[in-house]
Write a structure and sequence with these properties.
By secondary structure, the protein is α/β, with parallel strands linked by helices. The protein has 10 helices and 9 strands. The longest helix is centred in the C-terminal third of the chain and has 18 residues. It is globular and about 55 Å long.
């Protein structure tokens, strides 16, 4: 990029916050144009701050997808909520995403209260408009705007793309002038090693649904390139109780095989190389109180 072009570019950080299951990760993926954050119907899927990089005209949007903000009950919850507000530090804009169908409720209160304290410009993004009634959407917008005071309100569907081009164009205009922070072809700050663990965790949620409690973690123990250019990845799935081990393994180990097969195929497509993925299930009853696990999954330890 030459110097003249650089002077005309824009670049800024947009923190994407909200209650669990508002569709924040789906929205970030849609704006970036490819997957950078895992998604699941299970609440609180996003645990750490995930950064996606999107381009719109001369603007580079650095989108920080944060964990859902909720009432924390355990150490893991507290670490996630801290990561959510930490992701909003230094942002040029904060975008509050709400589930247009679920509406306002106690889950949203914590995020709204926290936003009132923030000095950054704030946008309200009402998501899932494809499955919500229009009258309710307007009521939600009026109530929240009266409480927080937003610069602008957008009605979108991250799943169908409804309203996204207008929203992305508006974000680009709001970014401050300055050079881009990332190369044009970079879509995330996540390493391939981190992405590998997240893709496997996503498959756990997709394939086991309600059978697997929210408390499961995936650690990438080995990530290396073979002489033929393919990747060899060894991961450990941490679960809290012996009974959960049988759920993850499935009859004759078939469920684990299926999880591995789907995760391997998706990783190979995302990374652009053949992948050899080896999964092991380990019962670690108190993993939520193990500092090393927090470090590995990218969370700060919170007392």
């Amino acid at each position: 990029m030459n110097e003249t072009a650089q002077n005309q570019t824009r670049c800024g950080v947009v923190a994407v916050v909200g209650a669990p299951n508002a569709g924040k990760s789906t929205l970030v993926n849609a704006l970036v144009g490819q997957k950078v954050a895992i998604t699941s119907p299970k609440a609180q899927t996003t645990r750490t701050r995930v950064m996606g990089v999107a381009i719109e005209g001369d603007a580079q949007l650095i989108l920080v997808d944060t964990p859902g903000i909720f009432e924390p009950k355990r150490r893991l919850d507290r670490a996630m909520v801290q990561a959510a507000w930490g992701g909003a530090q230094g942002a040029d804009l904060i975008a509050l995403v709400i589930d247009g169908k679920a509406g306002l409720g106690t889950k949203l209160e914590r995020a709204v209260e926290g936003l009132k304290e923030r000095k950054e410009p704030k946008l309200l993004i009402i998501n899932k408009v494809d499955i919500a009634t229009k009258e309710k959407l307007l009521v939600h917008a009026e109530k929240l705007n009266a409480s927080v005071g937003f610069e602008e309100i957008f009605f979108v569907s991250a799943a169908t793309g409804d309203g996204l081009p207008q929203f992305k164009a508006a974000l680009a205009k709001m970014m401050p002038e300055g050079p881009w922070h990332f190369p044009e072809d970079q879509v995330s700050d996540a390493t391939d090693r981190m992405l590998a663990a997240e893709i496997t965790r996503e498959q756990l949620y997709h394939q086991l649904h309600a059978e697997l409690p929210y408390a499961a973690a995936v650690e990438t123990e080995k990530y290396s390139e073979r002489p033929d250019g393919s990747l060899e990845i060894h991961q450990q799935i941490l679960i809290g109780r012996p009974t959960q081990r049988a759920i993850v393994l499935g009859k004759g180990g078939q469920r684990l095989k299926q999880i591995g097969s789907q995760a391997r195929a998706e990783l190979a497509a995302l990374i652009g190389k053949p992948v050899h993925l080896y999964l092991h299930v380990k019962v670690k009853e108190d993993w939520e109180n193990d500092r090393s696990v927090y470090r590995d999954i990218g969370l700060d330890w919170v007392e």
